Amino acid sequence: MRNFTLTLNCPERTGIVHAVTSFLVDHGCDIVEHQQFDDDERNRLFLRTAFSCASGSVDDLVREFDPVAREFSMKYGLWDERRTRILVMVSKAGHCLNDLLFRWRAGSLGGEIVAVVSNHEDLRPMAEAAGLDFVHVPNNAGNKPAAEQRLLELVEEYQADLVVLARYMQVLSNDLCAKLAGRVINIHHSFLPGFKGAKPYHQAYDRGVKYVGATAHYVTPDLDEGPIIEQEVLRVDHTFDPRALTAVGRDAEALALSRAVRWHCEHRVMPNGNGTVVFR
Fold first, then answer.
1. CB-based contacts of 130: which residues, under 8 Å, 6+ apart?
2. Residue 193 pLDDT more than 70?
3. Which member of 39, 100, 103, 106 has the greatest number of CB atoms within 10 A?
């Protein structure tokens, strides 16, 4: 038996679930997980079904499912069990990379990390200790177009399905965002837009915040405003100085990012307007 995942969204109407399940039964498939969401505000149905099948390929199933999809005006994706290939980008902070590497080696990340790219050399030992290629691509105001072209080449070279900005401290151009639309996940602290710029945790300490959080989202040309996949929030109090707030913030960033990456790799995240539907 081979494992597959089907995701779809379409205008709400009677018979959608029946059409999907009938198709799977007719093709000798066994449904192992099924989730759906009816968005009454937008009048759309979102569905994720994981199933196993003794025969057939993705291409065969897509070809045979197309008539069903056309009948219901479905936007859909169908995948086999091939693991998502992940290119991780970092700068100097290593907490998110370290967490991703641990989960990858433990088999709980949902995808396969294929390389680490950075605009600094600081995290080369961490990547190479995990047996990964580390590619240094300097990125500054003078060479940004060339750096982004090199990134696209690396995505192609490593056949990466997903790019993860694990505290990569460079803003991607609008052109690069468009070329990699839906394939780049970023993480940042959730104080934005309140505490911008350097030392956000020091600013938060000065304001006496009671919560520290992080947001994982898809990257779009709107800086830090792409569709949110996951957020993590941790409670703090007056005893947390800037150093302690920073440590808690790093934990929140690592947790939110790893969940977002895993859910994306397992095809659990679906765009919905400016947000997402996430089938956990």
1. 101, 104, 105, 113
2. no
3. 100
